[in-house]
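Input/output pair, single chain:
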Amino acid sequence: MKKYTLAIIGLMLGGMLISQQLYSRSAYSPDGDLPGVEQSEKEIKVFPNPSDGRFQLTLEHDGTEKVSAKVFDITGKQIKDISEDLVREDTSVTAQVNLESPKSGIYFLRVSIGNKVLTKKIIIR
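Output:
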């Protein structure tokens, strides 16, 4: 039973990482740009990481695209939608996140900006 559970979790993690890479690199053009999608060097910053379930999210963003953010556990189950907590400023988006008594482990923060998806691993002690 444990072998199957670990195999499924490994496949899910692999799928999440592959999908993230598909958004940043593409076979459609030699420079990796997706057709019709503006590429940039956006990075999600999470501090502190590892944390106790409370952390700050910061993302440089100066566009008008819709931004949403959700936290998932390692099985892919959505733990929290923090889209309503996002604060837009001139050049960034920030949020103070409290996962409210999470179990220790690995979680994923998925931020969607327009038609792009960025993922950041979060470790909860």
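The domain at 2-124 is CATH 2.60.40.1930 (Immunoglobulin-like). Confidence is low (pLDDT under 50) at residues 16-41.
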